[in-house]
Amino acid sequence: MPKLTRQFIESEIQPPATGQRFYRDEELPGFAIRVTCNSKSYILEKRVGGANRRITIGKCRELSLDAARKQAQIMLGEIAKGNDPKTGKRINTPKDTTLREAVHLYLEVKTLRPATQKNYRSSIFLHLRDWLDLPVRSITKDMCEQRFRDLTISPNRTRTSGQGRANCALKRLGTILSFAYDRCGTDDEPLLKTNPVSRLSRNRSWHRINPRQGIIPDNRIKLWYGAVGTLQHEVSRDFLLFLLFTGLRVGETRRLKWCHVDFENAMLVIPRELTKSDREHRLPLSDYLVDLLKKRYVFRKNSEWIFQAPRLKNRPLSLSNGFLCRVRAKCGINFKMHDLRRTFLTKAERLGVPTYVLKRLVNHSLSKDMTGQYIVLDIDSLRPHMACITNAFLELIDMNDIGVRKVKPIEQPVYEQINQLQIPLNNVVPV
Q1: Do 337 and 231 have their domain in common?
Q2: Is 210 within the bounds of a domain?
Q3: What are the residue ranges in the chain where pLDDT is below 50?
Q4: Which three-class secondary structure state does DSSP give residue 298?
């Protein structure tokens, strides 16, 4: 094996008549010259990602020997770091698969809803961001236990307990590591001996998160309604009212479009892509809700969204807490948006709405209930129950006694002067 020098390349190397011939350097292992009948090229031979690779560095007539040798050393350094010297990407071997690679592979392989993918990214990339470039096999049980404690006690922006945050982040991590164990390892060389997150389960360290029980009591519905009526942004007002009178989830409601409303049949059709249950939801609309949607249609400003953003008509309403805080301050009720869904369910149960009807109204699953799977409830059988719930709320609100200014019907309504809670629709023509 000769030492490759400029003189040796120019005088000693002769092109073969056929095939190719290799001259390997004795000083830099893997560095060589490949000679064919037409050309001479610098190459690097190395095992990359479990396979022997022969990588071309450049033509001898275009690159000096010193430059080629330096480039070969740079490539060897990249290989030592676990990167492919040609693409710059990580070499996916069981030994050096990083947490970032495992997360991306999991989200690529698994069929997950966009909201679920977002939850995984926010949990891992936010709370475990300093682990992203660590090899998966270097994550230990002690590291998981300590991070679980840190997330539990560290302050957050809402100044609430970090127990739910700690549970979510470490459970997501456990799922990713189990996937990596099955996907990246082999029987002879497993990626992990055990899942390090399993210590939290064995020690029963997971926090018990009690479900929220917040609702707006009957005796304060009227006060809440009056506070909602003080909001200057009419879309925010109707958004909160729509949540209370339908029991829909916040994420589903804010993404509703006019194509989801069937005015002719007084029905809302929410496609499965928008629902948490991944199931189409058909909801009958009471007269009050139809009037509310007609009012919103008048003020839609050519937007496709039912509850559009105040400044951008091509965006849905933002879930900022600004208008929510104003309503809380006005009525003195520290409620959350999801409390309106619980209030709807609670009111329906008190009115004696059958359980299976109630589950259909809020699109809860019946997959584990064999009897429920046999009961077929069409939209007309749900309509009287929806009207009953709406009327019960309207009686509690008592619109005639809340001090909200009423508007008389006019031929050409001045929209900015119309109270958004009580708008007559007799002479209003959609624009």
Answers
A1: yes
A2: no
A3: 400, 402-431
A4: helix
